## 1
Amino acid sequence: MKSYLIGAFLLAAAPALAQQPAAPMRSVDPQVAALRDAALKDDIAWDIVEGLTTEVGQRLAGTEAEARGRDWAIRKLRALGFANVHVEPFDMPTWIRGPESAEILAPFPQRLVVAALGNSASTPPEGITGEVVGFDSLADLQAAPDSVVRGKIVFVSHAMQRTQDGSGYGFFGGPRRQGPTVASRKGAIAIVIRSIGTDYHRNPHTGVMTFAEGVKPIPAGALTLPDAEQLQRILSRGQPVTMRLTLVSTTGRGRSGNVIAEVPGRDPRLPPILVGGHLDSWDQGTGAIDDAAGIAIVTAAAKRIMNARQPLRTIRVVWFGAEEPGLFGGFAYQKAHNEPHYAMAESDFGAGRVWRVNSKLGKDREPEGRALQAALAPLGIVPGKLDQADGSDIGPMIGAGAPGVELSQDGTHYFDLHHTPDDTLDKIDREDLRQNVAAWTAMLAVLSGGIQTEPKRPRRR
Amino acid sequence: MKSYLIGAFLLAAAPALAQQPAAPMRSVDPQVAALRDAALKDDIAWDIVEGLTTEVGQRLAGTEAEARGRDWAIRKLRALGFANVHVEPFDMPTWIRGPESAEILAPFPQRLVVAALGNSASTPPEGITGEVVGFDSLADLQAAPDSVVRGKIVFVSHAMQRTQDGSGYGFFGGPRRQGPTVASRKGAIAIVIRSIGTDYHRNPHTGVMTFAEGVKPIPAGALTLPDAEQLQRILSRGQPVTMRLTLVSTTGRGRSGNVIAEVPGRDPRLPPILVGGHLDSWDQGTGAIDDAAGIAIVTAAAKRIMNARQPLRTIRVVWFGAEEPGLFGGFAYQKAHNEPHYAMAESDFGAGRVWRVNSKLGKDREPEGRALQAALAPLGIVPGKLDQADGSDIGPMIGAGAPGVELSQDGTHYFDLHHTPDDTLDKIDREDLRQNVAAWTAMLAVLSGGIQTEPKRPRRR
């Protein structure tokens, strides 16, 4: 359990920050500070994440389980007193996991633990059998002559490293995102990768991938880290390695939807502030940190503002559907709501504490970004950039120019759990969750009600 | 990576020990100290544990996999130069895991992760369905009226706590060992327990249980800790909970065996020193810490003595078969070798460092026990009792009066991995493994060659 200093700047204690130019920080509206600090005792977010993961469990996009999640969401959001609670449905392609296994037949017979990647082609129920050819990285696979790969099961063992901000996910995720396409183009019959993850438990990391246009889909799976290293050791003996790989899946069409709820603003003509997360999850855990925690955090913060006062601007809470298979909810929202937003922000990087605030509100609104930094600093949150923000479902809208805020969560341990059966409620630290709610409450308090643009009592640090 | 002080007593730094009466410690034979310290750079044990877990993998008792393990053992022990390498086979009942799953059908449909306990009755392939009745402990189940249990699936959520010496395994293991019998007697159709384990990963802990005579076998499984707590939360909602439980298994007869190898002593008439571990493992991991590490440690230590000099007494290395389902190898050895042993010791509590030495060599040999303590202290090993020792396969023989030594491993994290799919090579710390080899080498050096009973240069601490 951690405790957070309340009402005191932690900046002086942070060595990295101490080296930054000491820009004088604005003072914080006492009402904002009070809302923020009260949220450090929040129980609303825990209630949501506990309820959704217990009473619904996994919520694979486009399935009946996700639909039960939407029903649960509607009931919960209405019970919390939100206005305009409704679903905006959309159709989408579905991919559903079936039986899966990986077995070394020779030279050392044994089973490995594997999970299919989303959009993997299906093997027959009895699996396919082939010789394994191993590569240390996507680049090595790309450089290999087709003749080395043709007819084989490709194995890429590229190892992910931890980062706090998750910035390695792009690079280390290459074998998952591009590997299957590259392998198929070279004539491989299947591909297994070392999980894009950082833990040593026998729970593989799934995740979506898409074959490039015109490329023949092949079965694609992820081994756990212990299994991937086992396969490396087996290959290192220098004998031909034969694997039977069974990755059965089915595809079709399904219905998903975005669940929307609002805290109506005093001036309904003003553009709303969108805060969101995604309701769907992968199928093997209960989607606790990905992303029940996210929707719980933003909903609790909105609820706390609702309880305190009517904000000037409408706060719109969106529980996006079908994020995991490809941001279907985000794109559906963008299409349906092609209108100005005052700001948008999404919580979708686990349940670790917020360590940094970035924003991209536009050049003329940088003072507002600085006011946000000042309001968040007492939570131990580093002032980040003023010209940068990102999010998953909202990413394309921010890319298209929507003003964005990013409350960066600590992702040091995120990829221990990401897309695995281990993404369950017990992984969430309640105090970290509360710090998140406090950060989002402060952010909404600053943005929703008009801001204090002039420092009242500048203080030196 | 840890480093161990070499040739220096760590006792002064251990607060608990500082409070013990400061018995003057014997000096250590320089040859023993040299052998011990050289073993801190051992690579033999790693080679064995890496090889066995990679080239054989899991080694379920009585199966073809365990037989491959014996073949591997014979090759390895001969290659290492041991004498009299042979198998002493025996027959045994087998229990083999089939498909297994647990599914909540109502009120909140979702899958839980389960593993059958060894000797569980088999369900039909389509599983059985029943209402779940939960108990917080074995005592609560025992106290329940039959009418509450009859026709139900019993769930016991008793939570294990960590201990360094593993002493909680007896108490906390009750739901696994006695729970199925108690539940069956009360008319339950099946039982699932919270895993006897201390980790929060979705890898259930299996382990053997035996129905009491005359009790009808019922299906019995273990849920992971995240799943057990999920089931508790679901039950806490107060609605009837229906579960479909599939635990398919098959039983039969199989062949196992003890693999034996020796370092012949200079005087073959003297009783041998037995050091052992067990070759078999549970079926879901690769049996790295349970117990490839154990046989690797004792074998490496014996090999190091062999390389250094011919010991006075024969050292007999035993890789017991079929420990997990009920010490079949230990009993077979006891029956075949009803003869005096100079001492026996077994390594079967993971791969954590040795933190304590106990011995039970007999009242007249307590000086030898003290010499052992002195030789081991520089490795940071606490002097334990002189009238106590235990082991798994050798437990019954020690109970029957055989002299025993116990090099206690640190088990604080042992039950994170014990009997789970997570028992894999990556969990072993090479430096901890080396400290084990050094301890066993020192122990064998003291016991195998005649000991120094008089202190040469008493030193005060």
## 2
Amino acid sequence: MSGCPFLGRKRQLFTSKPSQAEEEDESQKGINKATKGGIVYGEYLQLDKVLSAQVLQSQQKGNKIHDEHLFIVTHQAYELWFKHILWELDSVRDLFIKNHVRDERNMLKVVSRIHRITMIFKLLVEQFAVLETMTALDFFDFREYLSPASGFQSLQFHLLEAKIGVADHLRVPYNRRHYRDSFHGQESETLLSSEQEATLLQLVEQWLERTPGLEKDGFNFWGKLQANIEEGLKMEKHKLEKMEDSEAKEDLLADLNKQTEVFTALFDPERHEHLLSKGERRLSYKALQGALMINFYREEPRFQVPFQLLTALMEIDMLMTKWRYNHVCTVHRMIGSKAGTGGSSGYQYLRSTVSDRCKVFGDLFNLATFLVPRAWVPKLNPNIHKFPYMAECYDSSYNSYSSEDSD
Amino acid sequence: MSGCPFLGRKRQLFTSKPSQAEEEDESQKGINKATKGGIVYGEYLQLDKVLSAQVLQSQQKGNKIHDEHLFIVTHQAYELWFKHILWELDSVRDLFIKNHVRDERNMLKVVSRIHRITMIFKLLVEQFAVLETMTALDFFDFREYLSPASGFQSLQFHLLEAKIGVADHLRVPYNRRHYRDSFHGQESETLLSSEQEATLLQLVEQWLERTPGLEKDGFNFWGKLQANIEEGLKMEKHKLEKMEDSEAKEDLLADLNKQTEVFTALFDPERHEHLLSKGERRLSYKALQGALMINFYREEPRFQVPFQLLTALMEIDMLMTKWRYNHVCTVHRMIGSKAGTGGSSGYQYLRSTVSDRCKVFGDLFNLATFLVPRAWVPKLNPNIHKFPYMAECYDSSYNSYSSEDSD
Amino acid sequence: MSGCPFLGRKRQLFTSKPSQAEEEDESQKGINKATKGGIVYGEYLQLDKVLSAQVLQSQQKGNKIHDEHLFIVTHQAYELWFKHILWELDSVRDLFIKNHVRDERNMLKVVSRIHRITMIFKLLVEQFAVLETMTALDFFDFREYLSPASGFQSLQFHLLEAKIGVADHLRVPYNRRHYRDSFHGQESETLLSSEQEATLLQLVEQWLERTPGLEKDGFNFWGKLQANIEEGLKMEKHKLEKMEDSEAKEDLLADLNKQTEVFTALFDPERHEHLLSKGERRLSYKALQGALMINFYREEPRFQVPFQLLTALMEIDMLMTKWRYNHVCTVHRMIGSKAGTGGSSGYQYLRSTVSDRCKVFGDLFNLATFLVPRAWVPKLNPNIHKFPYMAECYDSSYNSYSSEDSD
Amino acid sequence: MSGCPFLGRKRQLFTSKPSQAEEEDESQKGINKATKGGIVYGEYLQLDKVLSAQVLQSQQKGNKIHDEHLFIVTHQAYELWFKHILWELDSVRDLFIKNHVRDERNMLKVVSRIHRITMIFKLLVEQFAVLETMTALDFFDFREYLSPASGFQSLQFHLLEAKIGVADHLRVPYNRRHYRDSFHGQESETLLSSEQEATLLQLVEQWLERTPGLEKDGFNFWGKLQANIEEGLKMEKHKLEKMEDSEAKEDLLADLNKQTEVFTALFDPERHEHLLSKGERRLSYKALQGALMINFYREEPRFQVPFQLLTALMEIDMLMTKWRYNHVCTVHRMIGSKAGTGGSSGYQYLRSTVSDRCKVFGDLFNLATFLVPRAWVPKLNPNIHKFPYMAECYDSSYNSYSSEDSD
């Protein structure tokens, strides 16, 4: 019966700081309780602004087309949610920047917020189902009035991509022009400056590089892993060679050779640099090692939440791709493929963006290529290598319950 | 790569009316094509208003709480969609009012728009999943700043309920006050005036009353159905009475008696009036007959789309109930049940609104109670009873492709 | 509290035919009512078979891996639903074959069942979210035991694709082998024989070719449309040529030329045959005309449900594509891209199947390319061209309530 | 193009143990690779059993009703997923029982599996949308053949409820009979014996009771919290009393009194016992303290994953309730409310099960009632109270990578 979830409950008693609100109450004596002091629902949400922003171009031009309202509201809802994703993204980047997530106390916050972004993206993917209740014919009726407004102009979506780490030089150009050319003035600057900041990808990379256990003079995960794998492959080969000759044996040997190639390449830093330069890898060599380590030891208390973070990052990547794909499908439905008109169509362009090149955390997906039997994973002696939480070392003067965002 | 579905495609060539836009083009010579003439994305969507409406009360009071942003954006997204639902609802009511949907050409539009409302409600139900990423603790941190803003103040949700037909006198009062008391001035008037207009329920009722085939001097569906059912029940009874005595026989007889009661009540107009007066039925007796008729003959071309409409109306009812139920769950999670504090809690109140009393089209659900074997349904001879589409009678001067909303 | 939706309600009274059940009741005297006569839940659903079919290969080989159970259940759920989709698909094809859907009374059934298929596909797309709770590491632990079982062996999915109309010769070969090579014996034959039957695409094509209004000596939709469009384009050109020279004018002229090309191609039957031969169109020329006609006149009572059918068919196409795309994403997550190992990886193969070539009803999507202003659409005079429902002509001896599936 | 997600990839090389499979390969020389050795897709999934289990009662009785197939498949899909939920549930209960989750290394597994259950329940809630494509009329046509099979007979759902901890004595009786009466023989015993085992609720309770920090002679969380809250409330009262007399003041004082009551009750062990005995609380007093502690200190590395677990448990509770609610809605749609027939209808019964009494982890929801300002939460000095992970103390002989399920 209420249009709003759980706002409500009367004035909160516990005010940690002497508040203005109390005085206001004084001045409102005798007024109906529901609006006594404080703020009312519609004002709080600034509904006067939000709900007066639906102006139909078709109506302006004297030919009101019913469905244009859906078009506007859908896009506004997308933009609202993009704004909130940016809010979460900036807060996560901040947590990484300010604390180097040295303080593991922040990890729950980081994971929860990245998870929240995935939940929003899921909703945004669902949202296409609403837009798709509009048929191509309905759209055709007002399409002309929108010209030349174009979806390529959503500043927030571009910001979002940039801040996560979609590589500028890997973007598919549209009609041979850089995507940033669509923006001007303030917008163009906002975009440019955001590209100067550390991306989520870069911050995660730096964090992965600090994974405890990578130290060559310590646990030396990478060295131990390489030794184990080489030994393992050698033994496999030995075993296979003893088999009687057969087609099966040849197949197995061929497979083994491929595997050996894969791992030889993995342990070759120059190969990694080469792939980096081509954009086929995005994480530094050391960060890649950290990510693989977190995968192998994900059940260690120290690595449980970091593992969840890696999983959530992949989820974001995947959902952005699904969002783009659903977008492509909707466009196809609305304007057709325009095959035969010549010139790159909007549809064909969008189609090309649903590619692995646009994946930011593709390296995390590709870790699956480097899995090995558990027996090959270097053993961990937690008595010796503790991978302590930094949080357990902070000094007692730390004010553990300061407002989260003031830090 | 684009933040917006399928806006785009360059200026549309086909302009049925000489447009202003052309002249504007003239004045924009030499400007970058992307913004040449017309309107740009951000302006079109009025993003300056929409994206500047997120003001955190906690931040205003010097204690920025991160999650308040989610709270605001979620509610704004709800309100945006409520606005669009009202847009569709008003257009459907208009189609009923202006045309009495005498013109069956409007039926596709009516069904499509009601269907669109269900798709939006599905999204709104999903949307709780995003809000639920906020824990009770996160909410607690800024709850005090919202006071006394309350969800009971969402004007649009109340309008929506009123326009669909949630009965004013069946609403559960909150803290013994009428829900309209939460609104003041302009809002209160808007609400009051909307309550004077014909509700969707009433318009559907009138439309159902006109179902072809109900005429007593024509096909006389109701009379024929009553006769068939009475005959059928009599034969069932006869058959049962010939069975040997057994527990099974007694059970079957008891069941038959119940069924007979159900149908005796169905064919008793006074009983219907009684249920109407108690709010247990909402449709007039004749409309109920029309609805049952459409159900039984739904495969007749004449009744296919009407049947889809009845189904879609039930869907709306069900989804509003699910929305309320999910709302209740979220509230429980956020503020607990407050059992033991005395006074009706927000949770307990909301719980009570998820009741069948709030169903508007409950009568359509209850039709399932009155189904009978197909053999009992009065036969239709389409040579005699054609139930013609009015549309096929309209005169040729009718301009069939005038703008839909100008009629 | 119940594991089953709405089974229940006691013995139904109304039995149109004297049933065996009654006699059974006699023999069950004194037995607890819940199992008296008839059939019990577990037997009805054959749960002994369904719930004993989860045998973990890892467990068989002495190394039980917990997550293999999820893998099995997920795939079994997919197969269950595939079976049901085939059930609906076959019934729809039957309705088309037996009745040529000449009897419009079947249209509601056809549309409802196609719609149901889309609802199932939506669920199947969602279902990946459950499978994705399994990480690459979890999968790696039992992957070896599955060899060489392969998803390319799902007979039902291939049947489903074949019956809808995925073109055999358009399929991407896997490792240079025809997809049918994966099946043997009975399975291979089932597949082959299904490929001999009329596909949904073909049946829809035949139905579209019969669209009333296409007759050259009748309404002659295609001829009238061509004339209107040619006239319209000529007038546009005339208008543009009178403009003062400018960049804008040149752009508009270029656009107009493209549009003219598009429509010239549309009205060229040879061009259509050429595209057909390349697999870029799938519908016959006449069927394409019918589809466009239904789009333009969708609000006519006669065309409302046909229009819904076309929309639902596009939905199926889109959802199958989304299913494939989600599949690809899951595979990427589970086994990586295997880039660098050489040889076509499963991932790369799957990636290639998410292409427009696999769309069956792509022609319906591309109709959006051929939309024109409503003023250009040939006017319909319903007094002259009635497009009557065949149903209204059927003779009175037709048994309108025979069991639907006995026909 | 494949009916199966990511099965595939050829024989895995890395076999930790000498496998039978190799020898089999030998015997299969020359056979097409796709079926060489090992197991094929259809056999692996035992599709012969799963896909032959759809027998329509209506067809058996000579009157095939198309939609009965949907009814069967939907229920079988439910049962398949119920089986998997039981699989996860049993594994989680095992992890608790065997390790007392003393070994925090299991926490990721526990949380992930509980999370997976929530993902499945989400799917099951969605699944009603498929069933709802069947109208009441479609159902009516075969309803009689199902008698007396009843959803109340889903053994697995009852097991699932029992194992999670739905209280036997809190269940709503159906037609005055205990729900267990619906089962007989083996099924009844399975159910009974499952009720002897420790429920998830009990195991979580025991785990919560061991929360580090509850020790009275240690950090003494409960004692400190009580002292802080009492002090806080006293100061609030003091502050309020200094206000000038006004309606506002009275309101605030009334609120404060209610709050004081709430907390007085919270710190009263006898009150807790009383609520326990009435079934209004389910967790022991000490477990409740542990849960509140985890909530307040959820950002401590030690408590991050435990906090996620509590959240996931609430999610399960909520989703089971939503499942029941959606079930009720579907039933209402299918069979109506049967109002007027007398006797408790299936619908009315189901309606009653969607109550808070059926919530298992209601105590966790109600924690929201006991939140206090962060300043009132006892400060934690991590130098003194380390809440160490047990895992960090295990001895080096622990085989950290033994197969997970052999422990």
## 3
Amino acid sequence: MEKIVSLCRRRGFVFPSSEIYGGLGSTYDYGHYGVLAKNNIRSLWFEAMIQQRDDIVALDSAIILNPRVWEASGHVSGFTDPLVDCRTCKLRFRADKLEDGQCGRKPSKRPGEFSECDLTEARQFNLMFETQVGALQEASSSAYLRPETAQGIFINFKNVLQLARRKPPFGIAQVGKAFRNEITPGNFLFRVLEFELMELEYFVPPAEAETWHRYWIEQRYAWYLKYGLRPSQLRVREHSAEERSHYSSATSDIEYLYPIGWSELEGVANRGDYDLTQHTQHSGTKLEYVGEGGERYTPYVIEPAVSIERIFVAMLVDAYDEEIVADRQRTVLRLHPAIAPVKAAILPLIARDEQMVARARSLYDELRRRQVVEYDDGGQIGRRYRRQDEIGTPFAFTIDEQTLDDDTVTVRDRDSLAQERLPIGGVRAWLDDALERPWRTPKGD
Amino acid sequence: MEKIVSLCRRRGFVFPSSEIYGGLGSTYDYGHYGVLAKNNIRSLWFEAMIQQRDDIVALDSAIILNPRVWEASGHVSGFTDPLVDCRTCKLRFRADKLEDGQCGRKPSKRPGEFSECDLTEARQFNLMFETQVGALQEASSSAYLRPETAQGIFINFKNVLQLARRKPPFGIAQVGKAFRNEITPGNFLFRVLEFELMELEYFVPPAEAETWHRYWIEQRYAWYLKYGLRPSQLRVREHSAEERSHYSSATSDIEYLYPIGWSELEGVANRGDYDLTQHTQHSGTKLEYVGEGGERYTPYVIEPAVSIERIFVAMLVDAYDEEIVADRQRTVLRLHPAIAPVKAAILPLIARDEQMVARARSLYDELRRRQVVEYDDGGQIGRRYRRQDEIGTPFAFTIDEQTLDDDTVTVRDRDSLAQERLPIGGVRAWLDDALERPWRTPKGD
């Protein structure tokens, strides 16, 4: 994991946030390549979950909702962790995870050694960030930053049902930031204060809930395989009754074998009719489906939910590779081309050669109209290749002396290191094809 | 404006947020077509500002930053509105805009009539939402939701300068949510609690600041023309000294003639060296450019900043049209095809005809692999056309009896209403071409 964190920092994927002010715990900023990779993950999810389907529509609800939403959902009363404060060092710890805590005054002590500390009794601490909305000066102006995007979907259920002329099974999906006031220090991007959730709420007739639950586990599992995660690093694990959230009647996690061990990548929950029933009771608006024949029921909800951050880390971990090539170590991110932040690099072999530069710039200008590509004329060609390997660029086109003679360029494959020559006029079509080809990780399964 | 709001609601572009709980002032949720249109605006901005340029890189910084960032930026002390409270009705009003206020207990009174109300003295009210970050229990754990994304860029200036091997002029751009605790009730999407900012911070040698300021005003103005806004509805207006924000040494707004009058669409500010200097002083980290020859200076910053919401409203207003066709009124959104949420509709003329449906579904499956298209077999063909007109779909392909004979379909143009026949096998290429063609609004200038 340290290697991943270091690569992310070195190549500008991810920085600790607010670094010049000493940081802010469990918060990160994304640099250029991080933004591009996240954009790809988001687009591919949106395409698979919405654009390619007839039965799912998009939504983008607000982060700050009417606070009664969170009373109805159970989050105000139930979305809590038990915490203890240390009266000596003023830090807070999860009462149920004291073995991971470390006293702030005695950093030399091992985690979990609190024998000399002055800990308070445990109390319940709500994980929602609270703020004040200013239009009213009364106590009721407290509001929360959403800890999940799902509730924004449930409260719009009726709007969508009417306007999109849908009937179950149908889904509403959205992507957006969510916030959790986490106390436990995070493992890199695993437990962060703010994260970008991608959630689908799929509404089904109650009798079909189990079938659709299995369907969505399979769909999402297949999506990860399609974008290059190795099956050996993936598994599906069913939650035990004790683990499940207050709203869930069954949850399965698609887990990935992260460096910290098997951990949740995506959760697929059967939320039953819990949320629609709660909002019906609290709002007085009936959130149910009424069929043409007059039959009515409250649909069950199947929810595949994942954060872009967890996919991002899984993709990086899965893609990271080191190998010895010609006696030198090479670090390479073997990312699926659709995930790779940059699709191709255009490299003039000799940066001082005006003709090579002109040809390279012209190819670059042609390609970047359709793809994110990068022009690089800085340093030895070997260094430039290694830079592109580290950010996972699948192809590099090099313009050299021969290009000036016969209008061909070299294309270098990131994974196999094979090089071949192509006519420069055919590069654009070649790249389009190469990016559409089915892809399999060269790391084996 | 009422017509736009009503269309947005009717066709599922935008809903008032938390509607089943009585709403939340100045907050909206976006339905399917709203999400698609916003995605298009965001992608086109990203493409023009980052992907097509060598000199600008992307960033995605956190919403909750270390609170010292906002002390340094001047927002903690200076980002305020003067407010008065009414002791009778408990509402708050902008002291400088009392003429727009309306007493909550006397809704019959005209705005601005406060003679019988019991108003407090004005006091400064900070527009940043405040919250508590839980890892520490002390007062210093207060944090803010960012009111602009720019500061996240400034504090990462050094990271990017080093890693992206840049020198001025170069830029860092980002898209993300920002939050302002606005008191003045909004005009639809004009003044909302949360909005999605698209900001570029462009770092330049101080002597070149004015030139680059003009350059960015022109670039951004041209971008709006390219995506269909009429020049007659656009103007550039320079801020007077009193209007300018605390950090600005010159600001020009690109204004649009909204139904509420000329109002800011995008601001292009010259922030000078204010921000980098402030952060250098407060953080102790020198945020300056050091050239290869050892020369050093603090770059000036040119900032084009706009919210997706304001572009979205301007595009809708500009595109909205009503006309009488064959004695019936038609409402049509003449959106630029790149902005339109749906690029084409595929319509089987007779929904009960299995052969027509099969041909239509097959065309739909082919097209949606590349574009957002919609299949619609619900209701009379005229109704379906009108539905697509209202959401701004530029093209509709109809599969009819003749299709079954000669493999051609009708393509209907949203704006001219012209219909022509095309071979069904050529539809995909025809649509690709049509979406790439330069486009001019049929509403004249």
